[in-house]
Amino acid sequence: MTPAVSLTDLAFRYTPTAPDVVQNITLDLPSRAVTAILGPNGSGKTTLLHLILGLLTPQQGRIALNGTQHTGYARREVSHILGLVPQEEPPAFNLNVLETVLLGRAPYLKLLQRPSERDYTTAFRSLEQVGIADLWARPVPALSGGERQLAVLARALTQEPDILLLDEPTSHLDVNNARQILSLMRDLRTQGKTIVFTTHDPNAAAATADYVVLMRQGRVLYAGTAHETLTGEHLSATYDVPIEVVRDHLGRLLVVVY
Fold it and tell me: What is the CATH number for 23?
């Protein structure tokens, strides 16, 4: 199967004299799977997502989406393929939840074109999928942090991308909302979506990911299936602290930091 995302010799720095934030990364991310990009703060995870999305331009290397070079797509085509759930964004003042979620249909609308019945149907379906359909008329600034994150996820789903990128999707959520987000990612995978998310939490990756990429200081240290990659040795090298990985009675991986 063609990888969803292929990175070849990718490097990026924010200024010409700054060190590389992403260093010579060659990597294939599988289609129709959940990939976790895991590493400590400052390891280059968010920068890598922004490079994949096209928000940043690498100084070196190539990026392919579904087998076609990123540069071969028009901007509108890229927005049909890739959707982003950012870690944080300012509340959308004067917009309610439904209006915010409908912004996900922008790549399908012409300038000044109003959303169609299909656009509204897609938006409400996304709201139901993330469990906040009853909040459709609520102003976004009045939502809790967890509800806002679910609204942003619903907006990305309304965009109907093939590949969904999520940047630290559970970092500011309580346990219940974090569990809901991780469960939604698994559900989306079963529906044929490709999910790529960044996290600094090894247990979030262990609970959700099929494929794991371990990053440190802009480099990929290890990449492979969750069971191959999430080992005490690999995680200890990534985080520079003693870490043990054990299995519970159901065979699930649990990460213990000493």
Answer: 3.40.50.300
